[in-house]
Task: inverse folding
């Protein structure tokens, strides 16, 4: 059960006062230029089919690194008096103050994918995400199983300091170091730009011809990594693991460029995020943390129902 009765009471009062704009649920993600976040949008839209009396808006910056733009979007949502907010914070520090302002305005906030920095734990109502630490460990376990315990592996990451990155990449590295003699090269940060990841991976492969494995930690990074592997003629030459599951990554798995991809429940993240906000607005109790899960998809199970339910 979550706390924050003051915020919920204020929200209920705002609704009772009949504020016309207070029926909007704003979904603000890290970027709209990603199939992953568009799948979150589809999930959120699906939840709205049973959400009588509410409308939904969907927004996000052009790139995950445009943190100031996302802060402005949250502030604009607060200023127009939305009923609730589903937010995937791009930066755990920068998004703390605007979420706190939403709390003070009586607007319930449900975080998806990434948490806020320490000190902001009491200004949102629920957090829905992949357990990124568990997911990172799962990928590391697969890396050791496929690549062995000796040699070097590269880590191609995305945006340093983002909550999901800290858990996913941090726990991957920790697991590798605790359970093998594999040497970590990197991590390198693509800023969630596919072209950056392609160029970085090309350089890493050239500088480290003896790599036994490589991990691309989110969708644009893994796509750029996969393309670089193909261009370098290294497909099947080293164990390549990705994260997320768009069509490009699925094809890399089918073609043997990637051994496997760890896929989050992005549709579920959007759908359950909106449903959770509506539950809060209806005065229902919600869990502090809701795990939206991850599935390891490889050539053997890619056509299974379990995999097809999370791929996009």
Result:
């Amino acid at each position: 059960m979550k706390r924050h009765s003051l915020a919920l009471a204020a929200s209920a009062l705002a609704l009772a006062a009949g504020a016309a704009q207070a029926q909007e649920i704003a979904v603000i993600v890290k970027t709209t230029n990603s199939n992953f976040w568009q799948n979150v949008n589809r999930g959120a839209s699906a939840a709205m089919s049973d959400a009588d009396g509410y409308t939904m808006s969907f927004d996000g910056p052009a790139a995950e690194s445009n943190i100031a733009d996302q802060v402005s979007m949250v502030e604009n949502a607060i200023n127009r008096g939305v009923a609730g907010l589903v937010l995937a914070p791009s930066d755990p520090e920068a998004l703390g103050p605007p979420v706190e302002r939403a709390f003070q305005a009586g607007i319930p906030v449900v975080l998806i994918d990434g948490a806020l920095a320490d000190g902001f734990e009491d200004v949102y109502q629920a957090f829905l995400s992949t357990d990124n630490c568990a997911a990172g460990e799962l990928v590391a376990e697969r890396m050791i199983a496929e690549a062995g315990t000796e040699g070097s592996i590269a880590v191609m990451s995305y945006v340093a300091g983002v909550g999901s990155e800290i858990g996913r990449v941090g726990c991957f590295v920790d697991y590798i170091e605790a359970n093998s003699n594999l040497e970590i090269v990197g991590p390198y940060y693509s800023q969630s730009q596919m072209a950056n990841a392609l160029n970085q991976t090309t350089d890493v492969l050239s500088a480290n011809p003896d790599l036994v494995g490589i991990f691309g930690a989110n969708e644009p990074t893994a796509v750029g990594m996969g393309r670089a592997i193909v261009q370098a003629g290294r497909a099947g030459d080293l164990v390549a693991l990705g994260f997320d599951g768009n069509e490009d990554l699925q094809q890399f798995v089918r073609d043997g460029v990637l051994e496997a991809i760890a896929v989050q429940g992005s549709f579920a993240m959007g759908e359950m995020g909106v449903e959770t906000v509506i539950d809060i607005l209806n005065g229902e109790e919600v869990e502090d943390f809701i795990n939206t899960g991850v599935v390891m998809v490889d050539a053997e199970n890619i056509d299974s129902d379990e995999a097809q339910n999370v791929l996009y």
